[in-house]
Amino acid sequence: MKSIVYFGDEKLKACYVGLKDSRVEDKKLYKWISIAIDDLEENAFCGIQIPKKLIPKFYIDKYKIDNLWKYDLSKRWRLIYSVASEEVCIISILLEWMDHKDYEKRFDY
């Protein structure tokens, strides 16, 4: 199901844009996130849904969400997003990306 992709906040969007003209490692991350955005525009549900009982309170409090999805950017990086609907369109909201170590910490693995 196609979707429109938004960033959870302007700070996250600015961080994404800043990756484009940064060091080599950050440019790779920019490319991976860009591919993920393209994939999410084609199918909002292409990631892996996080079970509701495992959604960190951090996301519920900050973004007032009731669903959470994970998109694997690479072996080391994860993109966390939520899916919402508005009238007749699906919206994918990018919340953050993190390396696997921070992902495990955030989700208490």
Description:
The structure is a single chain. Helix 1 packs across helix 2 (24-42). It is globular, with a radius of gyration of 13 Å. The chain has a five-stranded mixed sheet with strand order 1-5-4-3-2. The protein has helices spanning 10-20, 24-42, 57-63, 100-106; strands at 4-7, 48-50, 68-72, 77-86, 89-99. The longest helix has 19 residues, at 24-42. The protein has four helices and five strands, in the order βααβαβββα.
Provide keyphrases for this structure.
globular, single chain, 109 residues, 4 helices
List the helices and strands and how they pair.
Elements: E1 4-7, H1 10-20, H2 24-42, E2 48-50, H3 57-63, E3 68-72, E4 77-86, E5 89-99, H4 100-106
Number of strands: 5
The CA-CA distance between the termini, in Å, is 30 Å
Query: What overall form do the CA principal axes indicate?
Result: globular
Main β-sheet description: 5 strands, mixed
**Sheet with most strands: strand arrangement:** 1-5-4-3-2
How much of the polypeptide forms β-strand, as a percent range? 25-35%
The mean pLDDT is 93
Taking all Cα atoms into account, the compactness measure Rg is 13 Å
Please write the string of helix (H) and strand (E) elements: EHHEHEEEH
The total count of helices amounts to 4
Q: Helix proportion of residues, in percent? A: 40-55%
Low-pLDDT residue intervals, each spanning 5 or more residues: none
Strand-pairing-aware structural class: alpha+beta
